[in-house]
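Researcher: I need the complex structure. Ligand is flavin-adenine dinucleotide. Inputs:
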Amino acid sequence: MSMPSNDVSTLLERRLRTETQGEVLFDAAARGRYATDASIYQVMPVGALVPRTERDIALAIDIARDLKVPVLARGAGTSQCGQTVGAALVIDNSKHFGRVLHIDLARRTATVEPGLVLDHLNAQLKTHGLWFPVDVSTGAQATLGGMAGNNSCGSRSIAYGNMVHNVLGASAWLSDGTLVDFGPCADLGARAAAIAAFVRELAARHRGEIEAHWPKVMRRVAGYNLDIFHNQSERPYTSDGSVNLAHLLVGAEGTLAYTRSLTLKLSELPRAKVLGVVNFPTFRAAMEAAQHLVRLGPTAVELVDRTMIDLSLANPAFRPTIESALIAGHAGGPAAILLVEFCGSDRQALLRKLDDLAGLMGELGLPDSVVRLPDDAPQKNLWEVRKAGLNIMMSLKGDGKPVSFIEDCAVPLEHLADYTDALTEVFARHGTRGTWYAHASVGTLHVRPILDMRSGGPAGGAARMRAIAEEAAELVRRCRGAYSGEHGDGLCRGEWIRWQFGPAIDEAFRAIKRELDPIGLFNPGRIVDPPKMDDGALFRFAPPGTSRPYRTIALVPVLDWSAWNVQNDPATERITAPGSGGDTTGGFAKAVEMCNNNGHCRKFDAGTMCPSYRATRDEQHLTRGRANTLRLALSGQLGPDALTGEALYETMDLCVSCKGCRRECPTGVDMARMKIEFLAHFKARRGFSLQDRLLAGLPGYAHLASRFALLSNLRDDLPGAAWLSERLFGLSARRRLPRWRSDTFWRSRGEVAFASRDDVIGLARQGARTAVLFVDTFNGHFEPHNALAAARVLRAAGYAVHALAWRKGRHCCGRTLLAAGMVDRAKAKMAALVDELLPLARAGVPVVGLEPACLLTLRDEALVMGLGERAQVVASQALLFEEFVAREAALGRFALNLKAAGAPILLHGHCHQKAFGAVDAVLDVLRLIPDAKPELIENSCCGMAGSFGYQASHYDVSMRMAEANLLPALRRRPEAIIVADGTSCRSQIEHGANRQALHAARLLERQLA
Ligand SMILES: Cc1cc2nc3c(=O)[nH]c(=O)nc-3n(C[C@H](O)[C@H](O)[C@H](O)COP(=O)(O)OP(=O)(O)OC[C@H]3O[C@@H](n4cnc5c(N)ncnc54)[C@H](O)[C@@H]3O)c2cc1C
Ligand code: SF4
Ligand code: SF4
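Model: Output:
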């Protein structure tokens, strides 16, 4: 099938709109969001459909067949090889097809829809003591349909096998529209039996070729599983040697059929786990040991190399954990460690396994090289560190990036040491290097050489990629390994299928494709007849000389993005000076391009990222969707002026600027900051609305409004006024606004004995205990008791406290202006605040704030506003109230006489507190209260997010965010004291749960004895 004409795609769009109930997405920005997966490729789809019902999918397949438009099934789109991009109708299963259809506890099976996320399945299975054990690293977002499509493999595959070993059946549509049940060959219907007979005969005919060419390792995921009829895998596909036709679809990358449901084999959740960390003096020693270690029957043997160890040691948060896994004594520490895990039901037996491990290492000449981690918490911490190390590696700035194209070659363990040595030499010869990690147990070590894929010519990324791939392939052949051992074929490794299996089997694969999908409807050009891996026209960053070379537009950014405007040296990873990277947008585009589409922002775990996706499940309202749309706009791929166009506005609109991505995105994509940059350009062209002016200008008029509190509160007191405010300003009539009051902090500050500015400066110089309270507009005007409480608590602990005076708004950080894109005015405000605080900060007086969004602006956006060193000085002293108290308490300088609270304490962390790692400090401070055992509510954003939830257009999504976890958690605990430091969080809690939350300072004040 060729690329359809415009007429055909228009017709396709029209028919999908009229005949299905799905969301039909054909505009350029929406298509662009489905043009990439976690590979280096980009191919614009014809359009995308987010089906609501199975009927929608069946109809879409029929319509696409009628119009000769290819169909590409999609889950989370986290594939690394380009199998999830194509010039096709993309059908996204991930929004509406995430149900568990049936669990059979007796047989230990589950039947699921293809869009179900692995972790969501396992969460449901946990109560039954079961799990689905193909534990891919992307389990928080990867869908079962995608995992089956790729024949995915988890860290514990040595114990449980790959996807193919754990799929028992599949129901799938063929391209002629027939729905076929694939399963054990003994029970097949007529159509499936005919397919089975065809493939069986094909396998019989190719028996000799199969034996000669098929890699004899478990981790082989290339091509089709023709060997189900003549098993070549180290681990047979079925326990009784029978054939299951569903296995033909596993690893087929959506090229043979469209999966409607999958039946999966479940395993018992291991009751106990122990971990032995083996320290090796050389990398080679670790590689040589792997073959011996697996004989002990571990469930995982995972590698962490020296680079990863160093990265973890450099991070204060991870240092204690990684140190606890290292043995002092090796000069400079071990060159590599292997994490050897044993699981089972008998803990004593597992502990004996650790003894066996130590004994084996002694026999191998490395006595005393094992650190034992028998307890769950240290094990969990160490696995986290391993993951984080990879994330740091992925966050390398500059155009050279670690590129995944040979990162999952699988070799027999006896060759692992020679293979890794030789490949390291290959990298060096090509002027690059790679960091090694992951699955030593099955000979699949991940490694990504650093390449600049946007550079062209003989020394460009594509040329180097090919050269390295060819040399790596030769090494794999010498070791009789598998070139594609985990991540599939896609665009990247399709051409190596023929190399791996030879022309006869390649032809047999083509015959399989013809048998199941004779019209080539499903994901054409993958597995069969693939393009060249280094066809630059298919790259996301297409190099010069291709049909659409990647270039960025010229743009003068309003914030300082120069830290991203750098290049790196692939051999040393050294970064050039800020601003030297040659970015035509001053570094903004390079910051956006940091998104490598790994899809981690689709997770639903205890973290924050990404609340708008959690509420909508739309690719558009996801960090990745936003980054992709921005990248396409900044590179002119959405047409002229796309940066200030409606499509981009809609994409950024539901970003609540929670900064969750700033911390949780593996590559540090900071969409909240990007939204400020975007809004500045958008509003500069489109102008500010009345709502913008009203919300952004609040700190400016708050003092006056509070003088006339009665009048100012009429909006909520006068019938019809709220309705009018919705009409005029877009403020939701369903919300009450914060109440104005005339006794603001500045008018009540006489209640506390504040020190003068000169006094605190003088005292600080003498080493006395001092602080300056940065009272923000919101606490200062609407909840002055919070600021007074903080002052009283600090005073009670013996601190001299100063508070900034109200001087025409010189107390304000400009947060509301930033949120509206009024960056020039925000810079002026921030400059004034910094100047006010500077003499205090220079004297070493800590700047203590109450409102996370405001105080943390001093440590975040203030540093990219061109304020230079003075902003750095102030930032270095800026602390949230609890950070300050926790720090002082840890130093033994803070003591209070407090009484017990008499009720459980629940903490809702403000998103910015979480983004800056400041939640633990709040818990520490609450623990100062006798008998207090504060519990953190595991939730993402509360949905209010400053003024976001007050806006009528956001009300529904705001409430969906709140109802996801926060409000139900509060309703379950009516007796608990609720602590929430964010002003808007407290409003949301009052609105949604009818409960009063307290600032931590207020609770401490209440408990003063
Ligand atoms: C950082 C990172 C770490 C990773 N770690 C691992 C790992 O540990 N182990 C591993 O194996 N992989 C890993 N991967 C690769 C990838 O995450 C997995 O292959 C994952 O299982 C893909 O799931 P998905 O939902 O994103 O699939 P998608 O990328 O959406 O789809 C994968 C393939 O399945 C097909 N497909 C999807 N749905 C259907 C359907 N209904 N019918 C037919 N075909 C369908 C698609 O067309 C595509 O060809 C990693 C990727 C990244 C970025
Ligand atoms: S935004 Fe971050 S987490 Fe999301 S896909 Fe991009 S790199 Fe991954
Ligand atoms: S700032 Fe928050 S809402 Fe916006 S993209 Fe990042 S995680 Fe999502």
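Model: Summary of the prediction. The mean pLDDT is 95.
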